[in-house]
Amino acid sequence: MSGLQALNANLPVSGLPAVDRGVLRFLTCGSVDDGKSTLIGRLLYDSRAILADALHALEASSRKRGLAGIDLSLLTDGLSAEREQGITIDVAYRYFSTGTRKFIIADAPGHAQYTRNMVTAASTADLALILVDARKGVQEQTRRHAALAHLLGIRNLVFVVNKLDLVGYDPRVFEALQGELEAFSRSLGVARPAFVPISALVGYMVVSRGSHLDWYQGPTLLELLEAAQADRSQAGRPFRFPVQLVCRPRTAGQAEFRGYQGRITSGAVAVGDPVRVLPAGHTTRVAGLRLLDAKLSHAVAGQSVTLLLEDELDISRGDLLASVVAPPARALDLEATLCWLSERPFDPARPLRLRHTTREVKARITDLAGRLDLRSLALEPAAGLKANDIAEVRLRLQAPVFVDPYRADRATGAFVLVDEASHDTVAAGLVRAVPGGRP
Hints:
This protein has three domains: 229 residues, Rossmann fold, CATH 3.40.50.300; 89 residues, Translation factors (Elongation Factor Tu (Ef-tu), domain 3, Beta Barrel), CATH 2.40.30.10; 105 residues, Elongation Factor Tu (Ef-tu), domain 3, CATH 2.40.30.10. The N terminus is likely disordered. The protein is built from eight helices and 23 strands.
């Protein structure tokens, strides 16, 4: 059974599910010129998700470029600089729906210098489409994006072998690339990646099957997306609520109260539940929950709410309300996987600040365990860090943060490092462990 068939073993190969499967956030990534923007354009075009006026504008833009047909990549390459260069620089987001599901697509840049954009897009994605040009094969950026997608907790990886029309729809090309990518995925620890051959330019095996890939018996790319499981595991995690604002309304006719506003990043909470206030460590109970003007009896991960507590406590932005039974770990030291984003190489003399949920503390990198070699996936010795390096590090913090390992909670297991002098975001980090702590 192929990886694709295994991923969809519980679904029929032909026909689409009849139920509404909700929203799927997915990311397209891979090396430059592998056809990511064209693929998204094809998905939108063939699923009839383009409005008539947008289609006319697309046709006009294509004619200006001297093209006989429609250049579907222009649907996502919206910045003028991108259109002039024919590449994607920023992350472009598009939305469409079918009778089965709604989709939010993030088109990430392929160039290595824009890896930071890919990290941003991957941080909220349920699934990653990693494109491979059938002529060029697996590139370093293919491996980098696959490694980052896996590190960032995307459980559904789909390798899309594009431009089969340029190699005569030869099944041997697809099979060779699938074998190489399966071996690479195993070394990453990806259990069951999926594989699908397509021609985004012609439109084969994207929405419709076409006539030249009859040797492939799996679902089309759209069928795969409609069947994919979105990651909704945060609802079953212990309760976490980073405080963003303290609210004290004084509206005429409304009783004055002190509330704490923010987004529930994981778990659920109900009126009467005990919660722990961190870093102070006090325990209190939830006295009320509000969503705009509505009073709620309970709330779940993903909802932005106002929490009222039974006790008057000194709570401010940067504090965390958490489960009493399963609180996060208190950390003054962190072991983390770091993606260095800045064009300026790491300089241990430059002061850094760590931003974690709504909390910010001073930090420094005390140990550089090694840099990830994207070919062997082994750690190699490294004297420093430069743009797009992925490394394992240890950090010392001036004040505690309250974290979970990233593999368990994507919200409380992630952070960024900011240069104090320039205010630039220089790195994105994933918590692997707290030395001496539970993670």
